[in-house]
């Protein structure tokens, strides 16, 4: 038997999931909403001149999400020995679509949740650890560049592009 509080919480969770599921096909509006949440977070951090360690942790987490978003579900280096499904490497290979390790919806949802949690953390002074923020920024930029260099070299080595640009159309198909 569920208590009335549990029933209300379950109903609230169902309503939340219902509206979250309705946002799935509207990726542009979802990302605009996340951009608004990001700008509100930045405005809060810059207006109070603090919580830079929270921003640094948020940046590391977002970098981790980005790597998952850009990576294939099955790593060609690890899967080549198994003989399983891999990305095509030659023109004669069968076409296999790029399947992400972290799908776009989960990437968006995790990123938006991270911004909201970081925003809420800025209301508690226990998280305002005094740090020299330029050092954190420089360290994060170096980490980003090194990580992206490794990811891009992996993409070039295994010949995959994690973005679909759309159907290739010839300009002269009617001639």
Low-confidence stretches: none
Sum up the overall morphology in one term. Answer: flat
Total of DSSP H or I helical runs spanning 4+ residues? 6
The beta-strand count equals: 0
Helix content: 55-70%
Mean pLDDT rating: 86
Molecular structure report:
- The protein is mainly alpha-helical and 175 residues long.
- Helix content is 61%, strand content 0%.
- The chain contains six helices and no strands.
- The chain has helices at residues 4-22, 27-48, 52-70, 76-79, 104-121, 133-157.
Summarize the structure.
This protein is mostly helical and 175 residues long.
Note the main attributes of this structure.
175 residues, 6 helices, Rer1
Write the layout of secondary structure elements.
Elements lengths: L3 H19 L4 H22 L3 H19 L5 H4 L24 H18 L11 H25 L18
Helix pairs in contact: 2-5, 3-5, 3-6
């Amino acid at each position: 038997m569920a208590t009335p509080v549990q029933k209300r919480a379950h109903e609230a969770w169902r309503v939340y999931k219902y509206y979250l599921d309705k946002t799935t096909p509207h990726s542009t509006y979802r990302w605009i909403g996340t951009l608004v949440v990001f700008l509100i977070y930045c405005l809060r951090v810059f207006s109070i001149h603090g919580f830079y360690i929270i921003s640094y942790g948020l940046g590391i987490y977002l970098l981790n999400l980005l790597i998952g978003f850009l990576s294939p579900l099955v790593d060609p280096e690890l899967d080549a020995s198994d003989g399983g499904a891999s990305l095509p490497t030659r023109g004669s290979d069968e076409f296999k679509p790029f399947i992400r390790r972290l799908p776009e919806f989960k990437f968006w949802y995790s990123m938006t949740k991270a911004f909201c949690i970081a925003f809420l953390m800025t209301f508690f002074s226990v998280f305002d650890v005094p740090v020299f923020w330029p050092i954190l920024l420089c360290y994060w930029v170096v980490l980003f560049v090194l990580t992206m260099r490794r990811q891009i070299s992996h993409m070039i080595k295994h010949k995959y592009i994690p973005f679909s640009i759309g159907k290739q159309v010839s300009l002269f198909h009617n001639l």
